[in-house]
Specification:
Layout lengths: L4 H9 L3 H12 L3 H14 L7 E6 L6 H14 L4 E7 L17 H4 L4 E7 L11 H10 L4 E5 L8 H4 L4 E7 L11 H6 L2 E5 L6 H15 L13 E3 L8 H17 L2 H28 L1 H15 L5 H18 L2
Helix pairs in contact: 1-2, 1-3, 2-3, 2-6, 12-13
């Protein structure tokens, strides 16, 4: 059944999970008619957005991200908040399908009335973030969710894309998980706002404390992302609900600091500008491919690049210059 834009807007406003899911499916669609309706929908819900706290959660596979999100979400709900989870599943490079799509995750959180969970395939998008995650987040904000948690695939360098659409970037670390201090990229350390060492128990407590000291020393050499904020390194176990209350309080303290210094809105403005730049590139490329002659030139230069006839960046430059030259000759 197809829903009108007005029906979807009203459903989102009323928190109807079925219509929220339909709206997200619409936004994720690549069909041209769906894109037009999605644009209209997003424009109409914009006045309802902007009131949520957006939290990006990253860490190596096995760091316990899903367990952390489930129990953190339940904690937030117990504090009277509504929680939306955008769990980005890695996509198969072969069939583009979601690898974890058939797997039921966060079962206890899913039972909560004030929780909404949406797994989305990354579709090969850099950083394990679906290219419509930002727009999906807007829908959840319009639906009145107080916290929006974005779980990433945890692929490394491209986590910058998560930091670019969230207010808080939380890094989950485990002891002996292959991500010891020397293995943590400086780039990720420069992006994080809070670090949580997960899966801490009596057997590895001392090792966790030593790792915490090492991390704190390393952070002393990294310029602070936010003035007057010293990145906290917290210990606990998401599985046993230990340390989550401290994480909850720390995140709220960080948001309060950003709002007090006017950095909260400033950063969100910059994030919106980056999304604008991303979609400009997407739409220009889509328009180019719609023109048969342009598509032929695109495929020719792409073939030259893939065959290493010349440098890929050179082929890209030649193609764009040709496209712009041909476009100007039409006027």
């Amino acid at each position: 059944m197809k829903f009108s834009t007005e029906e979807l807007v009203e459903g989102i406003r009323l928190g109807n999970k079925r219509l929220i899911a339909k709206a997200i499916t619409l936004v994720e669609s690549k069909k041209s008619e769906h894109r037009l309706q999605a644009e209209d929908l997003l424009k109409k819900i914009m006045p309802l957005t902007g009131k949520s706290i957006r939290i990006g959660i990253t860490g190596v596979p096995g760091a316990g991200k899903s367990t952390f999100i489930e129990n953190f979400g339940r904690l937030a709900i117990s504090n009277g908040k509504k929680v939306a989870v955008l769990a980005i599943d890695p996509s198969s490079a072969i069939n583009k399908g979601s690898i974890l799509g058939d797997k039921t995750r966060m079962e206890e959180l899913a039972k909560e009335e004030n929780a909404f969970i949406r797994p989305s395939p990354s579709s090969g998008f850099l950083g394990g973030v679906a290219n419509t995650t930002f727009e999906t987040m807007m829908i959840c904000e319009a639906a009145g969710y107080d916290y929006i948690l974005i779980e990433t695939v945890g692929v490394g360098q491209s986590e910058v894309l998560v930091a670019d659409i969230t207010d808080v970037f939380l890094f989950l670390k485990i002891i002996g998980g292959g991500d010891e201090l020397q293995g943590i990229k400086r780039g990720i350390m420069e992006m994080v706002d809070v670090i949580f060492i997960n899966k801490v128990d009596a057997d590895n407590l001392q090792k966790a404390k030593n790792t915490k000291l090492e991390l704190k020393r390393a952070l002393d050499f990294i310029p602070p992302k936010e003035k007057n904020w010293k990145i906290p390194v917290l210990l606990g176990s998401a599985l046993n609900n230990e340390g989550l209350g401290e994480v909850f309080e720390t995140i709220n303290e960080f948001i309060h600091l950003k709002k007090k210094s006017n950095r909260f809105e400033e950063v969100r403005t910059l994030q919106a500008e980056k999304r604008f730049e991303y979609w400009v590139q997407e739409y220009i490329l889509a328009m180019m491919k719609r023109d048969n002659s342009v598509e032929e030139a695109y495929l020719e230069h792409k073939k030259n690049a893939s065959a290493m006839v010349s440098n890929p960046s050179t082929e890209a430059k030649l193609f764009v210059e040709k496209f712009l030259r041909d476009s100007r000759s039409e006027f």
